[in-house]
Amino acid sequence: MGYCVYMTKAGYALQAKLFAEGGDVRITRVEVGSGILPEGADPGTLAELVERRAAATSTAPVRRGCAVGLEIEYRADLSPGLEEPFQICEFGVFALGADGEEALILYGDLSDCPDTAVPERYGGCVRRYPVVMIIGPEAGASLGYPAGAWATHQELADALAAHDGDANAHPYIRGLCADVDARLGLMELMYATDVNGNPFTVTFGTLDGLVVTGVWNEPQARLEF
């Protein structure tokens, strides 16, 4: 498994119905998750994702000869309540099946090369996965990327260096580092300072028990004058 798309049994049944009766694929929902299929599991029998995490969307299916193409898209704004980043290891496309009930027709296994889903609170992101379903004797589905998605090793290295050097990049990690720096500075002040008398420590994370003059900046735990 690792990095491929599977048509489920419900998907094959829908394909057979459309072949016999005509009609359109009516997608009802698209989801991404962080689950990984157990060793030996048959993805064709799945009815839901292994571990659903967020809503996604897709373009309308478009027929090109004997193939049908669509693009799966995760966007942070589709799940505004998402709190923490997660690894996108799977996606699922649900549609009205052959019996008229909603069913999982396509399952994407991305566990070998997962992408990070970034919530809106940390700047958000967009992740896209083009899919091509082949209709015919070799019916199935596959992930396909346009030529514009390819880059050389040096181009990727340059892009990553520029991204990592951006002062607005990785806000979540930068926030954690700033918190560690603040805690380390406090420890150095407490244990590396020669104090004669009765030592005490004051922070401005709270004003409980303190009498101070100035404007309290609670988010930055400091007094401003």
Topology:
Elements: E1 4-7, H1 9-21, E2 27-33, E3 52-58, E4 62-64, E5 67-75, E6 86-88, E7 90-96, E8 102-109, E9 115-117, E10 126-134, E11 140-143, H2 153-164, H3 171-191, E12 215-217, E13 222-224
Antiparallel strand pairs: 1-8, 2-3, 2-7, 3-5, 4-5, 5-10, 6-9, 7-8, 10-11, 12-13
Question: What do you see in this structure?
Answer:
This protein is α+β, with helices and mostly antiparallel strands. Strands 1, 2, 3, 4, 5, 7, 8, 10 and 11 form a nine-stranded antiparallel sheet that branches. The protein has three helices and 13 strands. The model has no long low-confidence stretch (mean pLDDT 81). It has helices spanning 9-21, 153-164, 171-191, and strands at 4-7, 27-33, 52-58, 62-64, 67-75, 86-88, 90-96, 102-109, 115-117, 126-134, 140-143, 215-217, 222-224.
In short:
The protein is an alpha+beta fold.
- Based on Cα principal axes, name the global outline: elongated
Q: Please bin the fraction of helical residues.
A: 10-25%
- Sequence stretches where pLDDT stays below 50 over 5 or more residues: none
User: Can you count the helices?
Assistant: 3
The rounded distance between the terminal residues' Cα atoms is: 61 Å
Give the overall pLDDT as a whole number.
Answer: 81
Task: Pick out its properties.
elongated; 225 residues; 13 strands; alpha+beta
